[in-house]
């Protein structure tokens, strides 16, 4: 019985020694890992001077996403001179709210805008404010311009096409638009 108690006692001591050793190894690994991590002792002044700023003559790549037809047009221009020296935050404050800066570096700025219109690749049948069906085109990329008046009132079109024309029916060519309106009566 005495031998059995000694064996139980030595088993408990062995278990305590093993657990203590395991804790020491875990603590060593933790502190070793922690000492290899970079220290964040950067002052606020250092952070302020590290902000990227727009360089003179930076490349500006604007993506216009046309929601009505699903097309995108990319135009690349030189950034305006007054943008030189601006940070990304300052640039966002300066640009129109419709634009979103998607990528920023001193030499290159990527921006996008969602436009609720058709892209310049289309001719669009749509009524003007008086109800006359006109052919429109987005010649400048950011607004519809009347190409010509068809001489047909929206109310004179067939009922099955009237709603399509009322909201704007796009065509790839002017000939397609003209043929459609002739058949829409």
Key terms for this structure?
185 residues; alpha+beta; Ubiquitin-like (UB roll); four-stranded mixed sheet; four-stranded antiparallel sheet
Offer a quick outline of the entry:
With 185 residues, the protein is an alpha+beta fold. It has helices at 2-36, 44-49, 88-94, 159-167, 174-183; strands at 59-66, 72-78, 99-104, 108-115, 123-127, 132-137, 145-153, 169-171. Among the domains are: 50-115, Roll (Ubiquitin-like (UB roll)); 123-183, no CATH class.
Overview of this structure, please?
The chain is α+β, with helices and mostly antiparallel strands and 185 residues long. Among the domains are: 66 residues, Roll (Ubiquitin-like (UB roll)), CATH 3.10.20.420; 61 residues, no CATH class. The protein is built from five helices and eight strands; from the N terminus they run H-H-E-E-H-E-E-E-E-E-H-E-H. A four-stranded mixed sheet has the order 2-1-4-3, with no helix packed on it. A four-stranded antiparallel sheet has the order 7-6-5-8. Strand 3 and strand 4 form a beta hairpin. About 4% of the residues have low confidence.
